[in-house]
Amino acid sequence: MKSSPNAVEVLMDFVVGQRWVSQAEPQLGLGIVVETDGRHITLHFPAAEEDRVYAAHNAPLARIAFQAGDALQDAEQSEFRVKAVEELRDLLYYLVENESGEEHILPEAKLSAYVELSSPRQRLLSGQFDKNRAFQLRVATLHYLSERQVSPVRGLLGPRTSLLGHQLYIAR
Questions:
Q1: Mean pLDDT throughout 115-139?
Q2: Beta-strand relationship, 30-36 and 61-65
Q3: Which CATH number fits the domain that encloses residue 42?
Q4: Which of the residues 51, 123, 141, 171 could staple to 128 if both were Cys, CB 3.0 to 4.6 A apart?
């Protein structure tokens, strides 16, 4: 089972130990803040074994915050269900329950590095959506495709041939 957060906090207050996902490179997985100096932040992405340095004021990052009822995994891939969430000094602590019903406190630093944002709702909540220009291009393409499909000369448009007299006769 993969982790699937239902909510993402987008406050840009960075604290060592917080978990963030890169909107520009979601394939890196869940990153952890390892250093912050006010102007720059450094995230380590354990899933990719890579570090990234971002300018703090415009970093393409979204904070991962699970809610009560969400399923998640810790760094050892043990599965849990979130019962409650507490924030202490800008770090999240989850009261979780394992499959046998035992409760544990799981700090966000111990979350699994592998997070899947596959559903449209999850992508929207994490800020991983296309710019309006890309959406407008898709809409224009669909309108153009629709017009082409209802055209009476649909099969004759596009081929790289020259029309001969008998071809025009057949088309009529």
A1: 70
A2: unpaired
A3: 2.30.30.140
A4: 123
Residue 152 lies in a domain: no
**Residue range of the domain that includes 48:** 7-128
Structural domain count of the chain: 1
Identify whether 11 is part of a domain.
yes
Domain membership of residue 48 (yes or no) is yes
Indicate the pTM of the whole model: 0.62
pLDDT tens track for 136-167: 999 999 999 998 888 887 777 776 667 677 77
pLDDT tens digits for range 58-117: 888 888 888 888 888 898 989 999 999 999 999 999 999 999 999 999 999 999 988 765
Query: Is the Cα dihedral 48, 17, 126, 11 positive or negative?
Result: negative
